[in-house]
Each structure stands twice: as C-alpha cells, then as structure tokens.
Write a structure and sequence with these properties.
The complex is a heterodimer of chains A (about 425) and B (about 170).
Chain A: H1 10-18, H2 20-29, E1 32-34, H3 43-62, H4 72-83, H5 87-114, H6 123-145, H7 150-162, H8 170-178, H9 185-212, H10 229-237, E2 246-248, H11 249-274, H12 304-312, H13 322-336, H14 340-343, H15 356-377, H16 383-412
Antiparallel strand pairs in A: 1-2
Helix pairs in contact in A: 1-2, 3-5, 3-11, 4-5, 5-6, 5-11, 6-7, 6-9, 12-13, 12-15, 12-16, 13-16, 15-16
Chain B: H1 2-33, H2 38-42, E1 46-49, E2 58-63, E3 66-72, E4 85-87, E5 90-96, E6 107-109, E7 114-116, E8 123-124, E9 130-132, E10 144-147, E11 150-153, H3 158-166
Antiparallel strand pairs in B: 1-11, 2-3, 3-5, 4-5, 6-7, 7-8, 8-9, 10-11
Classes of the chains: A mainly alpha (about 425), B alpha+beta (about 170).
Chain lengths: ~425, ~170
Amino acid sequence: MARIEKANGIVDWLDQRLAVKTLAKVLMTEYWIPKNINFLWAMGVVLTVLFKILVISGIFLLMYYKPDVNYAFDSVNFTIMQEVEYGWLWRHMHGVAASAIFLVIYIHMFTGIYYGSYKRGREMIWISGMMLFGIFSAEAFSGYMLPWGQMSYWAAQVITNLFGGIPIIGDALVVWIRGDFAVADATLTRFFMLHVLLLPLVIMLLIVVHFYSLRIPHVNNEEGEEIDFDIEAEKYKAGNKKESKVIPFWPLFLSKDFLIVSIFMIFFFYLVSFHFSFALDPINFEPANAMKTPAHIYPEWYFLWSYEVLRGFFFDVGSIAAADIGLAAFGFANVIFILLPFLDRSPVVAPASQRKGFFIWFWLLLIDMIVLTVYGKLPPTGANAWVGFFAAVLFISLFIALPFVTKNETKRGA
Amino acid sequence: MAVEQSRRDFLGMAFGGVAAVGGVFALGAMKKSWDPLPSVQAAGFTTVDLSPMEAGELRTIEWRKKPIFILRKDQKMQKNANRDVVVDNSEFTVVIGLCTHLGCIPSWKPSTQEFLCACHGGVFDASGVNTFGPPPRPMDIPPFKIDGTKLVLGEEGPEYAKLVGKA
C-alpha cells in the first residue's frame, strides 16, 4: 500500500489515493499528437461532443417518452413538443445531432481512407471505428422507430424483413426479432431497450477501445511520416518546442480542436434552430398504421447509399432472384469497409495524392457513394434504376479491384 | 509435480465446463424471452362472410396484424386453379397483402387489374402472382378453412392443404 501522508491540498490528497497527476500526464499532458495535421484531425473530438449532446438530450426525452404503441406517438408529438418546456429543443437537438453525427462519421472515415490511417499498426483503430459505425447505425435505426409514426413503422417493417432473406431460418428469425407476426408493441419495447440502454453501453465501451487503440501506433499525420514519438516528446519536454514534431494533447491540441468544435457548433445550432425539419420526415407526423404503406419509403440520408446497393439489382440473373442478389450486395457493402486494411496490399502510408492508383480509387469511391446516395432517394423507375444498378456494380467492383490496384503500387515503388 | 498439475487442470476444466453449461442455458433463456408471447401466438382466428361481396370487388381485412386481400374475381379476370379459393361457386383470390420482397402493402389498380407495390416497383396479377420487379414469389396464401360461405383465417382446412402444395 502507498504511504499516505498529510496532504497539502485537495489535488495532493487525491493524488495520494488515485494518482491523479500521473493519470493526467498519461491521458492528457504527455499524450503526444503530431504537429503536421489539419482541421480534419478534429473530427474525432467533434464526434465526441456530438455523442455527448445525444446522450444529454436523450436523457431529457427519456423522462417523458412512453414506449407503448398507444402512447408513443402522442408522448413525442404532444407531450414533449407542446407541454414540456424546451421539449422541442431537446427533440430537435437529438434529431439533428443524429443526422450530423453521421455526416461527421463519414468525413472522419474518408479522412482515414485518404491519408492511409488504417494500416501499418493502425488496423485496430480502423476496425474499432467501423464497429462503432455499425452500432451507431443500429442505434439510429432503433431510435427512428420510437416516435411510432408512419416512417418509423414502415422502416421497421422493411428492415426487419431483410432478415427474412437469410436461408432456412429467415422467416422464423423475423418473427423472433419482432416478437410478433408483424411490427407491434413487443417490437417497440425491445427496440426502446436497445436504443436507450444496450446499444449506448456498447458504443461507450467501443469509444474507449477506439481511443485506446490510438495509444500504441499514435495518430497519423498529413504526410504519413513515421515519427519517433519518444524522441520528439523528449525534445518537447526539454523545451525544444519549436523543433519537436509533436504537441501534447492537453492543452495544445485540444485548444485547437475547440476552435473547430466551436465553428461546428455554430453550424449545428443554426440547423437546430432554423433547419431542424430536414431531420424530421413529414410522413412521420402521421401515426403508425399497419394497414397503409406510405407511397414512398426511403431511409434517412446516411443509409441511402447502402439502400441503393440493396435495390440496385432489380432483375433476376438465371435462377437467382433479384431480391437475393440485392441482399447479398447489401451484406457485402455493410461489412467490406471493415476489411479495408487487409484489402489494401500496399505498405505505403501516404496521402492518396501521392499514391497514383489509389488516388483514382479514392475519388471514384467517394463520387460513387454520392451518386448512390442521390439515386437512393429517387423513385427506382426507368433510367434511375439503371444508374442505381451501375453505381452498385461499381461500388462492389472497386473493393474487388483494391488489392490489385494497391499491389501494383509497390511494384512501381511509388 | 505431475499430479499437482493434473489436479489443477481438472479444477480449471471443471470450472470452465460448469460455466460453459450455465452460459448455454442462460443464452437459451435469453432467446426464449425474445420469443412472441403466448397471447400473441394464440390471437389469430378471423372469420369473414364472403356472400355479400360482388364480382370484381376487393376487400382488405386484418388478420394477425397483417392485411389480407380478398378479391372476388369477375368474368374478365383470369382463373388460376392453383391459387383460387372457390366458395359458393365463385373464385376468390385470398392472399396476405404484403409484398414478398420487403413487406410493403401493394395497392390494387382496377384499371390494369394488378397489385402495385410502391416501395420497389413490384407488380402482382389478380391472382397475386408476381409478374414484375424484385418480389421473389407470389403473395402468400394464409391458412384458411371454408365454412359455408364463410372463410375462417388461421385454421387449416382441406381446401388450404390442397392449394399449399401447388401455389
């Protein structure tokens, strides 16, 4: 046991019991971040702030929300929106933050892809990040069900039905997931549990793993330069701050991050105050009705690209049904990103602009995902269906081509 | 020493074995807790009288929270011996009104005599057979029993057993 002496202040008292000074060093003042980075490196902290906003606004919504098919719709649209003081603010913050967090996740993800921050020791950062993306998707889906409007109901119907495509156990699995023959009260209460307890717990755990996975390989930088963090840290601590290639996480890196977070928050509260309606579909202001499907069903914008991959395959090939091809492609699209570190066969860590084949690959992927997103919202008729088909085929081909594109890179010694 | 080691191994394996069995039982309990409740499974018989329906008329009723399309075929509609439910000498199409693609409710277009699904463009003919788009199979026929001019949904009668093999 440590030797406890009379403390000379509250910090010292805590330090003797919890080693808070060492803890602060390890986590903050001697956790080193490279200097040659740009504003895109602030997205992780922006995401952390957005997640906090979701948790806090969610706590206030949770106090009035009723997970019951008879009360859910009114508890949101009447109680929270009209009776609870500032209830509208919590709801709009929650809805807009859910949408904004996906925008920033995509920026964060594509930053990682562009700068090659997923390989050479950084695989676990990428994998834990993609696991977060998956759980966040489940969290978004389960939350979307809670207001129990028409879109909530039919999105739940369509998404749970996807599991029916699994051979043999499919139909039984759908009934098991729903707890009823159709989406019903049992479905609402179990997805409510997932949304407010189990999934947030998993997210918090994964965030810790994600942060921890940065400790050993450290954060990447703009040039993909391999920095000896021990040597650079020594330089910094010796007072050679200008020459050192690193800065401490706190207070230097975070103070820069706070600037980006502040700018982002101006944009965020502008959306919450004046343009919240983009996150609240008008069809969802009609109570759920199992006997009437809305004319157009589409997911929120952040799921459109994978949704378009699902419905892009609209004709049978031989004896394989269109729906099964679509489902297989959808499954592929949802797991393939996590395998990125192993599909990229090049050992080079550099921004895409310095990697010829990969540069083209990166921009093709980004443009293709934007095309898929745009056409995912349009009705799948006539020429739209073909654009969707080719964009979906291109998406899959890009990932199949990646090992070959990157393998060539090493041969040429780029 | 060797004896000591095997004793330790045995303790470890016994402990691990008991924990594994407990874990499997716990998972089984968790799976069962997610199953549909008995009350949900039991609620499931709906009776409809088909005699007041006119030729060409479509009715949508609710059975186990799903829409059921009942269409009394008129002269122009093609008969389908593998799917038609014959009650009182007239043919009816009786199907679960959910698109077999992802479960949206198709709507009936009297002008073309087709069921159209707005979600992903699936089309079914008057007998509920898929004719275009992503639906992988015809609309499902719910279990039924014919009782005079009445249809009992949820119970399997001989007429249903006859159709189920062919449709």
